[in-house]
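Reminder to self: C-alpha cells first, then the designed residues, so the page reads top to bottom the way the pipeline ran.
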C-alpha cells in the first residue's frame, strides 16, 4: 500500500470509475492503485450518484467527478481559520511600528500568517490601523510629463552606461537622488543607493543645490568606494564632474524615474520615517535611518539585508 495520508487524485478516481464499470472488485482496484481496500470502499461510497441505466430503472454508480467535487468541498470545510491572537497582533504591530511591510514580517521575521491575511486584518480594522497607517496608500495616477525634443543631458547618457553596471554585476555603482522633506527651501537628503547590494548612503544637506550636493559627495567619496554614479538631470547634479570623474557619471532620460528604479524604490523606505511635509530632522535621525535601511531585508536579496549581503550572509 502507499504511505498513509496520501490523498487520491482526480486521475486515481478516473481509474476507479473505469475499473468499477468493468466489474473489477474493490480489492482488485486497491491492488492496482497500491491502496488499502478500505480506502477504495470509502471512496466508492463517497462518489456514488443515482443514474438512470434504462427507462424506469435507476441504480447507484461511482462518478469520479462527483467524488472529486465532494473531496474538494470537504477539504475547504476542514481548513482551519487562522485566529488573530493577542500575541500575534502585538508582534505584527511591533514590526509595523518598525516600518516593516507585511511581506517582510512573514518572510524575514517569521510571522506565522500569510501576507494577504495580514493585509486583510489591516483593511478590516482587526489591528486598529487606518489607511493613514499604511506604508503606501493607493494614490491617484498622474499624467506623465515629456521632455523637450531638443533636450541634452548634463553629461554622458545612461545609454552609454556599460552592460556590467546595467546587469548589477559588481558593488560600487550607485544611483544618486535628493529627497525633499517639505516644499520650503530648506534642508533635504542626499541619497545614494548601490545598484547591486542596495546599500544606502544618506546625508542631510543644507539645500537642494549643486554646491551642497558636491560638498556632501566629497566627504562620501572619502568614506566609500564609488565606481560610477547614475543621476537624473536635476540642476543639483549638473556639476558632479567637479568632484567625480566625468567618464563615470551617467544621466538618465528626463522624466524617466524608472531608469533609476533602485534609488526611487529605496527612497520610499526613507519616507516611512520622514513623510512628505516633514519640516525638521537631524543628522542623528538621518544616521539612524541609514542604519535601518541597510539592515532592512530585501526581496531582491532573497530576504537578506544589504548589510548581510555585503558581509556574504
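Designed residues (313 positions):
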Amino acid at each position: 500500500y502507499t504511505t498513509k495520508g496520501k490523498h487520491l487524485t482526480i486521475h486515481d478516481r478516473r481509474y476507479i470509475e473505469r475499473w468499477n464499470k468493468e466489474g473489477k472488485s474493490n480489492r482488485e482496484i486497491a491492488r492496482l492503485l497500491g491502496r488499502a481496500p478500505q480506502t477504495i470502499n470509502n471512496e466508492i461510497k463517497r462518489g456514488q450518484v443515482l443514474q438512470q441505466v434504462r427507462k424506469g430503472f435507476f441504480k447507484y454508480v461511482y462518478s469520479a467527478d462527483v467524488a472529486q467535487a465532494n473531496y474538494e468541498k470537504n477539504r475547504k470545510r476542514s481548513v482551519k481559520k487562522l485566529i488573530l491572537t493577542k500575541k500575534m497582533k502585538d508582534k505584527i504591530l511591533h514590526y509595523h511600528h518598525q516600518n516593516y511591510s507585511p511581506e517582510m514580517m512573514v518572510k524575514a521575521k517569521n510571522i506565522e500568517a500569510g501576507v494577504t491575511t495580514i493585509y486583510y486584518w489591516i483593511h478590516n480594522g482587526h489591528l486598529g490601523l487606518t489607511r493613514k497607517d499604511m506604508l503606501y496608500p493607493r494614490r491617484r495616477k498622474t499624467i506623465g510629463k515629456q521632455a523637450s525634443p531638443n533636450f541634452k543631458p548634463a553629461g554622458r547618457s545612461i545609454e552609454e552606461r556599460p552592460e556590467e553596471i546595467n546587469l548589477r554585476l559588481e558593488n560600487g555603482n550607485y544611483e544618486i537622488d535628493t529627497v525633499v522633506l517639505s516644499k520650503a527651501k530648506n534642508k533635504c537628503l542626499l541619497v545614494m543607493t548601490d545598484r547591486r547590494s542596495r546599500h544606502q548612503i544618506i546625508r542631510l544637506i543644507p539645500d537642494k543645490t549643486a554646491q551642497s550636493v558636491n560638498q556632501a559627495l566629497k566627504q562620501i567619496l572619502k568614506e566609500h568606494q564609488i565606481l560610477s554614479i547614475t543621476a537624473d538631470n536635476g540642476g543639483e547634479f549638473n556639476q558632479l564632474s567637479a568632484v567625480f570623474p566625468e567618464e563615470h557619471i551617467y544621466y538618465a532620460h528626463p522624466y524617466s524615474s524608472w531608469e533609476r528604479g533602485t534609488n526611487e524604490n529605496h527612497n520610499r523606505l526613507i519616507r516611512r520615517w520622514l513623510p512628505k511635509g516633514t519640516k525638521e530632522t537631524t543628522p542623528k535621525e538621518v544616521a539612524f535611518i541609514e542604519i535601518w535601511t541597510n539592515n532592512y531585508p530585501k526581496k531582491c536579496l532573497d530576504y537578506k539585508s544589504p548589510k548581510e549581503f555585503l558581509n556574504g550572509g
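The chain has a mean pLDDT of 86.
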